[in-house]
Amino acid sequence: MKRLIGICLLSALAVTISISVAGNSETVAAEKKAKPVLENIQSGSVEFKRIGRMSFGPDGVLLVADVGSASVVAIQTGDSGPMKKLSKKVEDVDKKLAALLGVSAEDVQLVDMAVNKKSGTIYLSLHRKSDGVGAIATVSGDGELALLSLKKASYVRVPLPVKEGTVIRNITGVEFTNGRVLAAGQCNEEFASKIYSLPLPLTHGKSAEIYSTETYHVAHGRWETRAPIQSFVPYVEDGKNYIVGSFSCTPIAKFPIDDIESGAQIKGTSVVELGSGNRPVDMFTYEKDGKQWLVTNTDRFHHSRRPLGPSQYWGVRVDMSYLDAKDINEDAARRDVSQQAGPDGIEVVESLFFAKHVAKLSNKEMVVLRDDEGALDLEIAPLP
After folding, report:
1. 231 pLDDT exceeds 70?
2. By the 8 A CB rule, do 114 and 54 touch?
3. Mean pLDDT (whole number) for 86-102
């Protein structure tokens, strides 16, 4: 009996800003740049019913998913630089975060990590288990931890449209890209994979259009609609926009997001299979020596069944040319789970062993939040 597995690919997004000024491309560029990211900005206290994943956009705008209220909050942090990256490893981050919140380390869930590439400041979203309070902490280049003030914030809150009877269970990612904001997650519908499209500027209280998606799950050998996308990145191919996402057990698939009518169902194309028993956590792309790479770190939840390296947390990089492959879905490239590398262009990244979260700082470096025998350490590591 076919088992459907559904996503709530929530993707909050989208409008390419188009300004036509005849004979003056510089003016066009200036006007595009001047277009605000946020509109109808609110001033006051920001509260999260259940804080979630984060990412940075232009002008120091921090996107934060609020799963509890089925919305995305965009905060003007005012963090515009200059760059001052983390100068040395910060040990026992979990204990220091707990001290900021006035609780024990066991009472703090670290939900996500994002880095502002303009300043190097690292942001951590936190959930206090005892009372459900959400908070955001920052780590400066000097390694100093502080709480981001949410009492007098400048922000907009964008609700994700939810029809009667539908419950958004999780929001697993949120990203700015090409005049768009994407969010992925899971709800309780049979076709639970959704894409929500919001125009820029993101406007307080303004909602979105809605789409559904379906994906071929390589390891399971069937089309599924319930397995949530766990991490994703935006991707452009031949001028067309896609979401590239990874799922548990661990297919990498791409979804077209251009010229889609509201209410449409979109089929994803699976291009790579990284191996069952894994849950992807974070994902980003970088360029080295003229080649584009996709990086994802994973949590191997069936660690004892599939030994690989010293930790249940590990990472892999994939040559982005696989996204152009003709062998797709049933014939998608499969990682050799018995080796560190293989097939060509799919490689385990040793510096991502023990990595619970990872974020790109530049094409040369990444920020790694690393498990150290139960404690958490924060450091800069080179990209392979």
Report:
1. yes
2. yes
3. 97
C-alpha to C-alpha distance for 311 and 330, rounded to whole angstroms? 30
- Does the structure show a pLDDT above 50 at 14? no
The encoded tokens of residue 335 equal: 């990682």
Please count the residues of the chain: 384
Amino acid (1-letter code) at residue 10: L
Question: 302-324: b or e for each residue (b if 16 or more CB lie within 10 Å)?
Answer: eeeeeebeebbbbbbbbbbebbe
Name residue 127's amino acid: H
Assigned token pair, 374: 């139960």
Q: Mind spelling out the 3-state secondary structure of 129-172? A: CCCCCEEEEEECCCCCEEECCCCCEEEEEEECCCCCCCCEEEEE
Query: pTM (2 decimals)?
Result: 0.86
The strand pairing partners of 252, in sequence order, are 246, 272
pLDDT at 3 over 50: no
pLDDT in the model for residue 138: 98
Structure tokens at 349: 């990244």
3-state secondary structure of 33: helix
Nearest C-alpha neighbor of 217 from the set 191, 186, 247, 184: 247
Task: Give the Cα separation of 318 and 292 in Å (integer).
Answer: 9
**187-197 burial, b if ≥16 CB within 10 A, otherwise e?**
bebebbbbbbb
